[in-house]
Amino acid sequence: MSDILRLSVPLAAWLAGFSVVYGLQGLSCSRHWPEGLAARPVLLSAWVLAVALQAALLWMLLRNPSPSPFARAVSLALALTALLAALWTLMPVAVTSVCL
Amino acid sequence: MTPPSETPPETSPKRPTALRLHRALEPIYASDPRFRGWFTTNNNNDIGLLFLIAAAGFFVVGGVLAMLIRAQLASPRSVFMGPDVYNQVFTMHGTVMMFLFAIPFFEAMTVLLLPGMLGSRDMAFPRLSAYGLWCYLIGATTVVASLIPGLAPDSGWFMYPPLTSTEYSPGINTDIWLLGITFIEVSAISAAVEVVVTVLRYRAAGMSLSRMPIFAWYILVVAVMILTAFPPMILGSVLLETERLLDWPFFQADRGGDALLWQHLFWLFGHPEVYIIFLPAAGMISTILPVMARTTLLGHGWVVGAAVSLAVLSFGLWVHHMFTTGIPHMGLAFFSAASTLVAVPTAVQIFAWIGTLWRGRPRLDLPMLWLLGFFATFVIGGLTGVMLAVVPFDWQAHDTHFVVAHLHYVLIGGYVFPMIAAVYYFLPIFTGRTRFFKLGEVAFWLVVPGFHVTFLAVHWAGLLGQRRRTWTYDAGQGWEIINLVASVGSFVMAIGFALVILDVAVNAAVSSRGRRNPWGAGTLEWATSMPSPSYNIASIPVVRGRYPLRDDPDLAHRIARGEGLLAWPARNRRETLVVGTARGEPLQVAVLPGNTALPFVMALATSVVFLAPLIDAYRSAGVALLAVLALALRWAWTLGSKVDEGPLDAGHGLALPSAAEVPDPPGWWGSVFLLLADVTQFGSLLFGYAFLWTVAPNWPPPSYLAPGLWGPALALTGAAALAAGPRLAARAIGRTRAPWPGLVLALGGAAALAGGAATVWAARDPTAHAYDATLWLLAGHILLHAALAAIMLLYLGARVARGYASPARIGEARIVQLWSDFAAATGLVALAAAWLPGAFA
To answer: Which residues contact A67 (CB under 8 A, 6 or more apart)?
Structure first.
């Protein structure tokens, strides 16, 4: 089962991070967002956390690779994909308007 | 466990010849004779073939509806159909093609081929295959039959409220879609659970993840996608049906609902759905193309990685169907970025396939011709998809015929063409015959050019502003000739598809018998005699590479002579091998069920549960629900044994436990993945609640629910007891002691948890506000799962009393523990979600 986890966790973590940041952005534009709290720094922090999580997962896979060469190669490729996906898909927190 | 030796020892009672082994296996695995066999078979060959024929039949229905649409649009102000009929026709065309053809067709191919590819005797849960088939057939027939009295769904295949609310759709047309399609999805979920367990556990010895056939990888990914993509839409259907039936205002803005919630839930399913359809076709391409090119797949690992990436990334695209709904720019940009990113793994696969062609020596047989049709079409569809992923372009093209053309390029080019290639490629396995009549080539040259004439024109009409889902248009807008050309092209394409069906039918009926493995493929499904026998594979081989038949050209004969595992049926029952998930080492012997009408009868009862509400027969639905419950208990009761069998001889000197005498039997694995779907559904409900709380108008509600003391006390005590009780019971069974204290504790826990949920029901009126309706649904989730856990606990008690449990036969107790844990954990989360806003208000 651990190979299955190596293959599935990084992209699943990307999906979770992506959903959380999208939810956070929705929340920041809602009536529930605290007065005076700037949304962009919070969103930027969430982006950095999501990327850091992916980097940590990649590092863990490099430190504890699968004994199977096939699972090792594919899991590393998927972890790298998840890292790039976190960088690319959440980049709008830095460059677009938040609630417009 | 010691791995099997490479040289086949002679452990069977008599060293069988291929013919003797066939004669010994055939009576054990054969279906019942004559008409009865249709309803009692659960053999993958029978079920798969019935599935395939039914799905092809519904493709014809969807195709006829498409021709009606093109006939209507061929000229302006056509009087061929009125708007009421047109609405039903285009809605049913989309519904039939997506739910009644595309998904069932690849499920059929999977049920037919997967056991052979993996070197297994059948799917993991053969009765579930049969149950899924009958649910699909009954549900699909009902939905299509609604066209005859003019009661078919008529609000588009995506059923957006408020158009589908009772105010604007007062008839039962919408209910037929919501209840009928949800019923059919029971079939998809059933298939997904058993595909996942089959791929992970039911393989040939030594078939590690790296040696697994590429199609198995794709279909594993797709099955997990079904388990995680379908639940949001099932939830959406439940919300909309309860709104229509009980006036719970989930989508009504004046009472705290929001119509956009439906779009989120629908497209959380709808966008992955596109890849759920595409990926099996891509799996077929990755299987067929290397054989046609007389080489192996280039970049096998990269292709697996691309399939997994595509699957997960596709869940981050759903809002790109909602770019025009007023979502803030940042939200649009997230989904635009994800939509462009998804092109990368798609391109990895395309380049791997092109590289495979480049490396090999391609031959232009008919399957290859269809694959070339795929390349020419799908790449265009992919590029228009990237265009639509860019927000400003989407704003211009949204809801125009450009989108219609794009999705047909992707779905027909990316799914139908490769599936036709697959049908021709696997025809020898299905029928045992070699293609003789050559209508298929003529059909290809009608379909592919006809398709491009049709949908290039439809692109053009869309760019000129023609809106989709409108029953007619006025002359003088520059669309007349374009639509006429598209309609002519579509009829040419339809004639081509009809010829494909005719060609396959004629060749299946009267062509000459063919030899084994006519294409020279390397995977195990070609190791059997043609057509595939009822037992699929005479003995289960030891696999040492990704292409076993290429590595050992004599393997097929050695398998037939019984030189693999589990060859001679000494125990006179259906058996197959269960292996380790990653390395494929032999672990258990699974006993497969025999012929039974139980799945058919249970599907009939299930159909009454879903369809009786259409005619307000709620009492009948309730009685049928009890019948389903009784049949499900009967289903489970027939499994297992009252005695420990101990290690079983599997051949090659290998002794393995029965799958009934291990802590993680196949049913435990099936439960894990069914609960994955369940937790996704629960997560979708929490998402809906959070969405309404965050953005819906007319919030906050007039008052929040105050938790009080009794409710939380009951819930916490109940959840703790429900989690602890089954553990105590399982531990007692493991030590040959009476499990009753644990079972009683757990039953009390389930009752207390349900009591906690009932306090929510007692306090709120679900018709008052979307908040109240959501609380009722959260409490309903708890009550349903507490009831399920209680029924399972009582069942376990009965099994223990009748001698079906022992320290070895502990699997059932662990399954009950799993479901109890789920009920306790999600129950606490649901009640926290219900009470926290009131606690802090």
So the answer is: none
| Residue B16 pLDDT grade (very low, low, confident, very high; cuts 50, 70, 90) | low
Q: Does the structure show a pLDDT above 70 at B8? A: no
CB-CB under 8 Å, A18 with B341: no
Does B510 contact A at CB distance below 8 Å? no
Query: Phi and psi for B129 in degrees, rounded to 5?
Result: -60, -45
Q: Please answer yes or no on whether A74 and B200 come within 8 Å at the CB atom.
A: no
- Whether the per-residue pLDDT at B420 is higher than 50: the answer is yes
Polymer length in residues for chain A: 100
Contact B337 A88 (CB under 8 A): yes
pLDDT confidence band for B640 (50 / 70 / 90): confident
CB contact under 8 A, B305 and A74: yes
- Residues ≥6 apart with Cβ < 8 Å to B91: B152, B153, B154, B155, B156, B157, B177
pLDDT at B718 exceeding the cut of 70: yes
Who among A1, A21, A22 is closest to B581 (CB)?
A1
Domain interval for residue B782 = 700-840
Cβ-proximal residues to B552 (8 Å cutoff; 6+ apart), any chain: B558
Q: Which residues of A touch B695 (CB under 8 A)?
A: 26, 30
Q: For residue B287, with 0-12 CB atoms within 10 Å meaning exposed, 13-18 middle and 19 or more buried, which class applies?
A: buried
Optimal mutation site among B322, B334, B349, interface A, most CBs of chain A within 10 A = B334
Indicate yes or no: CB of A21 within 8 angstroms of CB of B334. Answer: yes
Helix (H) or strand (E) segment spanning residue B588: strand B586-591
Each residue of B125-164: pLDDT tens digit? 999 999 999 999 999 999 999 999 999 999 999 999 999 9
Residue of A nearest to B699 (CA): A31
The enclosing H or E element of B28 equals helix B18-29
Q: Which residues pair with B400 in a beta bridge?
A: B467
Give the DSSP letter of residue B766. T
Whole-model pTM: value is: 0.95
Mutate to test the interface with A, among B309, B312, B318 (most CBs of A within 10 A): B312
pLDDT digits (tens, 9 = 90+) for B498-549: 999 999 999 999 888 888 899 999 999 999 988 999 999 999 999 999 999 9
Nearest chain B alpha carbon to A27: B694
The string over B400-437, giving b where at least 16 C-beta atoms fall within 10 Å of a residue's C-beta and e elsewhere, is bbbbbbbbbbbbbbbbbbbbbbbbbbbbbbbbbbebee
Q: Would you say residue B11 has pLDDT above 60?
A: no
Across all residues in chain B, what is the average pLDDT?
95
- The answer to whether residue B817 sits within a structural domain is yes
Q: Is residue B772 part of a domain?
A: yes
Residues in A whose CB is inside 8 Å of some CB of B read 1-4, 7-8, 11-12, 14-15, 18-19, 21-23, 25-27, 29-30, 32, 43, 68-71, 73-74, 77-78, 81, 85, 88-93, 95-100
The total number of structural domains that make up chain B: 1
| Separation of alpha carbons B786 and B824, rounded Å | 8
The CA dihedral of B54, B55, B57, B58, to the nearest 10 degrees, is: 120
Q: How far apart are CA B426 and CA B48, in angstroms?
A: 13
Q: Are strands B575-579 and B586-591 parallel, antiparallel or unpaired?
A: antiparallel
pLDDT at A1: 53
Domain regions of chain A by residue span: 2-95
Q: What is the DSSP letter of B476?
A: T
Q: Residue B515, SS3?
A: coil
Is B763 contained in some domain? yes
Query: What residue has token string 């694959």?
Result: B371
For the four alpha carbons of B510, B513, B517 and B523, in that order, the dihedral sign comes to: positive
Q: Kindly tell me if the per-residue pLDDT of B360 is higher than 70.
A: yes
